[in-house]
Model the fold of this input.
Amino acid sequence: MRTSRWIPALYVGPAVLVMAAACLYPVLAAFQLAGYDWSMGTPWESAVTVGWKNFATAFGNPMVWSSLRTTLLFAAVCVSAEMALGIALALALEHKVRGMAFFRTLFILPMMIAPIAVGLVWRYMFDAQFGLINAAFALVGLAPRTWLADPSLAFVAIVVADIWQWTPFVFIMIIAALANVDGSVIEASRIDGARWLQMTFRVKLPMIMHVIAITLMMRLIDAFRVLEVVYVLTFGGPGDSTEILSLHIYKTAFVGQQLGVAAAISVLLLVVVALLSWGALRLSNPMKESR
Done:
């Protein structure tokens, strides 16, 4: 019996409607707000239409581009390190080893902690007087560092916190993909004399490249959306050395009460994330037909 053409739409329709309400409406609302001058606490009727003025104000502000550069650097460093560490850990714990269940559980724990708590924990860890990191430095004879007061070291601090929290996500995605690799292909490559490196980089990783691409895309999006950890750890300081774009949007909206300008900057962030996501999917399209 042939399935009617409207049956797939019947099943997919509710999910599409939910996604449209949850995702599309806020995006359209941000575009709308970017055309108005409005402050929180005042009725919407008092909002003044300003057209493209908010975009001109946002794009003409050097702080926006400085925050964007900081965000790009933060995302590049964090995502690269998380992908490399996550894939390496997944390959190391792919096979049965003693204590494997314990290690897998241990690696997953950081991802389960609330970002606010992660920021607080690492703030105490990097504390110049009482932090555990400076205490460890003292044990090996190294001088203590003012981690959160030095622009370069503060950036290192937020990078370390993000890598610690989100490497487990990459680990989970990759180890699940490796578990679904066809064992007959691995066995055939082993019979053909492939060594571990050849089997890993020419057989296993190419077979799960679509999962790697999706994981990369998801981490890129999350790296651009990160806010809580940086907010608690440095609040963009010292100076503006760790002020990523999402934090700058927060400050513009809720500290400066420039909601229209903040919405215009959020549109810029949306465009950047969309372009990066498109590029990540182009690396390996999971929906392409095998030829």
